[in-house]
């Protein structure tokens, strides 16, 4: 049995004894006080180091602090190696942590395989149903829920024509090992014709393949759409430099890639998504809410972010309506 559950049962038993002795009000207050002051052990399993996933972790940690949740964080990074996520999850189960926070799809899948008892929260997962992490977006069932990084793809595809009406073909480079990327590509291919766009895609398996694959892809397209893909995110400066060399517009799925040099997004903030997930952690650990009753969350807001350095390098019109009210980064 989980440590947290044991503590709750002990506290409840003590409260019950006080009720029998005529101290009902004081007993309830004692339970609440114990839950508020308890320190919870939370294991964080992160697939790789790059800005988006780092932001999801920082947002979660800051969110816990803002919510007053006392947490001892045990952070493990798999360094992009999926088998490492299995080992990390098994170690967290062995150590009987109070909750596992899994960042990115492979980390969440490994955590789910490791335990059906310990509560698991995920983030940076695009489609947790297709990834077989939860049964349903609303009725998750089991011990796993979290927040999705599903991007507003339709709005993002509209940005290409808004920035340059002559764009007809967009390119996508992606990691063939990421289920998240396959899901995003399918959605882009379904929606792109509605925006008058064709899609050319190329898959890679490692960072080493990126330069040659990019050269091939960019020779065939007018612009690039950067998915929320861990391999692309890890190579974002390489990708953005190639795009600037080719004087090519780029739109991405989330804001951290704009910080790395991609031109623009109307997307989510992984930091805010992490804070949103922290609220779920409080509901589970402090408020005692059943994990299976908490639906998967999506980003509560999106913002337009533009990289001003890339904007100037491409020589684009600063007065374009798409840039109005955009958050500017990169200078």
What's the arrangement of secondary structure elements?
Blueprint (H helix, E strand, L loop, with lengths): L2 H18 L3 H14 L2 E7 L4 H16 L4 E7 L4 H13 L4 E5 L1 H10 L5 E6 L18 E5 L4 H11 L5 E7 L3 H13 L6 E7 L5 H9 L4 E4 L3 H5 L1 H10 L3 E4 L2 H5 L4 E4 L2 H16 L17 E5 H7 L12 E3 L2
Helix pairs in contact: 1-2, 3-12, 4-5, 8-10
Description:
The chain is an alpha/beta fold and 331 residues long. It contains 13 helices and twelve strands. Strands 2-1-3-4-5 form a five-stranded parallel sheet, with helices on both faces. Strands 7-6-8-9 form a four-stranded parallel sheet, sandwiched between helices. α5 (105-114) links the parallel β3 and β4. α4 (82-94) runs parallel beside α5 and α8 (210-218) packs parallel to α10. The radius of gyration is 22 Å and the shape is elongated. The termini are far apart. The model is unreliable at 1-31 (pLDDT under 50).
Summarize the structure.
This protein is of the alpha/beta class. The chain has helices at residues 3-20, 24-37, 51-66, 82-94, 105-114, 153-163, 179-191, 210-218, 230-234, 236-245, 255-259, 270-285, 308-314; strands spanning 40-46, 71-77, 99-103, 120-125, 144-148, 169-175, 198-204, 223-226, 249-252, 264-267, 303-307, 327-329.
Question: Main traits of this protein?
Answer:
331 residues; alpha/beta; five-stranded parallel beta sheet; 12 strands
């Amino acid at each position: 049995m989980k440590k947290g559950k044991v503590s709750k049962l002990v506290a409840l038993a003590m409260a019950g004894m006080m009720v029998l002795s005529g101290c009902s009000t004081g007993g309830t207050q004692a339970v609440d006080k114990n839950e508020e002051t308890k320190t919870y052990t939370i294991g964080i399993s992160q697939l790789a180091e790059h800005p988006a996933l780092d932001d999801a972790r920082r947002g979660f940690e800051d969110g816990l602090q803002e919510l007053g949740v006392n947490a001892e964080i045990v952070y493990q990074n798999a360094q992009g190696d999926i088998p490492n996520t299995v080992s990390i999850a098994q170690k967290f189960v062995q150590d009987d942590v109070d909750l596992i926070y899994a960042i990115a799809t492979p980390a969440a899948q490994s955590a789910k395989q490791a335990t059906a008892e310990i509560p698991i929260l995920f983030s940076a997962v695009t489609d947790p149903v297709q990834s077989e992490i939860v049964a349903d977006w609303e009725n998750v069932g089991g011990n796993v829920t979290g927040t999705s990084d599903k991007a507003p793809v339709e709005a993002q595809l509209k940005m290409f024509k808004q920035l340059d009406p002559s764009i007809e073909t967009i390119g996508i480079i992606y990691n063939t090992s990421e289920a998240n990327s396959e899901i995003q590509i399918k959605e882009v291919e379904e929606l792109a014709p509605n925006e008058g766009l064709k899609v050319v895609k190329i898959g890679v398996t490692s960072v080493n393949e990126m330069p040659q694959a990019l050269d091939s892809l960019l020779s065939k397209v007018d612009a690039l759409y950067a998915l929320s893909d861990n391999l692309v995110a890890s190579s974002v400066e390489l990708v953005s430099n190639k795009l600037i060399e080719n004087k090519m517009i780029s739109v991405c799925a989330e804001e951290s890639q704009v910080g790395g040099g991609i031109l623009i997004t109307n997307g989510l903030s992984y930091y805010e998504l992490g804070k949103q997930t922290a609220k779920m952690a409080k509901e589970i650990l402090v408020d005692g809410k059943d994990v299976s009753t908490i639906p998967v969350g999506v980003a509560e807001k999106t913002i337009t972010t533009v990289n001003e350095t890339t904007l100037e390098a491409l020589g684009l019109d600063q007065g374009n309506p798409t840039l109005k009210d955009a958050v500017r980064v990169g200078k």
